[in-house]
Amino acid sequence: MALHSPLRAFPALKRVAGWRNHRLQPKRCMNRDVTDALSAVAGADNISTSSAVLEQHGKDESYHGCKPPDIVVWPQNVEQVSRLAAICWANDLPIIPFGTSTGLEGGVAALKGGVCFDLTKMDKIVKLNAVDFDVTVEPGVTRKSLNNYLRGSGLWFPVDPGADASLCGMAATSASGTNAVRYGTMRENVMNMEVVLADGRIMYTAGAQRRTRKTSAGYNLTNLFVGSEGTLGIITKTTLRLHGIPESMVSAVCTFPTVQAAVDCTVQVLQYGIPIARIEFLDDVMMDACNKFSKLNYAVSSTLFLEFHGTEKSLAEQIQVTDEIMKANRGSDYIWAKDQEARDKLWQARHNAWYAARALRPGCKAYSTDVCVPLSKLPEIIVATKDDLIQSKLTGPIVGHVGDGNFHCLMTMDPRDKDEERRVKEFTDRLARRALAMDGTCTGEHGIGLGKRHLLTEEIGAVGMEVMRGIKAALDPKQIMNPGKVV
């Protein structure tokens, strides 16, 4: 059966002048009057057209080139964000939300120029409800600053991507991290969001002040905006689910003779129902890089970093059963990290894996793959990927949140070597399609951004893409919200 075009399926698109190939070309109207209007709202000290500032705001940590905006504004509160957005709407100016610039998919690149909204000065922890295990924060609050604030409360926020990212930015990309196997990703931990839409209207995805632990009221707008990457609106507050700090935490390192043995062990640990808090895989190349970068002294072999949370009694049971599984897969004896300092050093090394991989080849660009597959497919895809890296003669240390079926190849490439750049692109596309063929996804936590748009179409399908474009057109008919990303 022939598919209907987006214009037939979503009549709202017909009303948007200039809609072609599902993308608009916003008319850029940056002039003195617009600059003065922005300055009147944010204050003269909170706007900049300095070339150095624009360059800083046109790039994240990805390999994508810098695409600077025309101007940067630093709003102080949601009312200013709303008024600034209304000015951009009236003048057809692209809006690019900006947090800590730690993304890995080019999400902050201003492909059509426009206005960058740097939200770092909105850094209030608005309200902590310790009894209800939730907190509301502004976009300038990072994950580490929140957990520092929570010290002494008995609570913590466990979602931990490698960088000290903005919590609203983490919501925008549906981020996760090493604790997701037990505590979930941002999608499971965001309860409500305050969002400024493209035309300046302010909405609450679950209703103003709502912070219930579950709801069946209407469409799930919260999860619509989680992972929207700034293309549907500007997240100005998020209400997050908090968790109690466990009575005891113990970390350990275990090495294996092969990739297959380490990944098989991971799957078996989860199949046994062990409530493991963290289980991270690092291949031999990654371990060598971490040893050098973080000054560690672990064996250069396929390795699992593990962490157990619970009471003293439950930890003993978890460790005993896990140890039996490790030994059955030819794992080494545990190397323990029991005190806070030793655990922090271990997990900081894991979080620094991206920088450790880049340090293997100073001066080179880096790109992180991000596929995720069902657990049963994990051993097969990692072994195949390791073989592909060797056959392709590429440097790509493998590290991953294997408890979720998610792993990364941290590819390094010489920007002057066009042949290597081509081989990396071919490898990453092969890997993504290998994951799709195994019922997986091309991105588990980094988002689509610039580089995976062609893969999103293959993953979601034609009808799914039409629906996404229809949602985008309904919320942002002028196509000014972070244009050129996702859809």
Task: Give me a quick take on this structure.
The protein has 487 residues and is an alpha+beta fold.
> How widely separated are the two ends?
24 Å
**Shape by Cα distribution:** globular
- With strands numbered from the N-terminus, the spatial order across the biggest sheet is 15-12-14-13-17-18-16
Given as residue ranges, the uncertain stretches (5+ residues, pLDDT < 50) are 1-24
Rg, rounded, reads: 23 Å
DSSP strand tally: 18
Explain how this protein is built:
It is a single chain. This protein is an alpha+beta fold and 487 residues long. Helix content is 37%, strand content 18%. The protein is built from 18 helices and 18 strands. The strands form 4 sheets. A 7-stranded antiparallel sheet has the order 15-12-14-13-17-18-16, sandwiched between helices. Strands 5-6-10-8-9 form a 5-stranded antiparallel sheet. The N terminus is likely disordered.
Structure characteristics:
487 residues; alpha+beta; 7-stranded antiparallel beta sheet; 5-stranded antiparallel beta sheet; globular; disordered N terminus
Give the arrangement of secondary structure elements:
Layout: H1 6-9, H2 32-42, E1 47-48, H3 51-56, E2 71-73, H4 78-90, E3 95-98, E4 115-118, E5 125-129, E6 134-137, H5 143-149, E7 155-156, H6 167-173, H7 180-183, H8 186-189, E8 190-196, E9 202-204, H9 221-225, E10 234-241, E11 243-244, E12 248-256, H10 259-271, E13 278-282, H11 284-294, E14 302-310, H12 312-328, E15 335-337, H13 340-351, H14 353-359, E16 365-368, H15 378-392, E17 398-401, E18 406-413, H16 418-437, H17 453-460, H18 462-475
Parallel strand pairs: 2-4, 3-4
Antiparallel strand pairs: 1-2, 5-6, 6-10, 7-11, 8-9, 8-10, 12-14, 12-15, 13-14, 13-17, 16-18, 17-18
Helix pairs in contact: 2-4, 10-12, 10-15, 11-13, 11-14, 15-16, 17-18
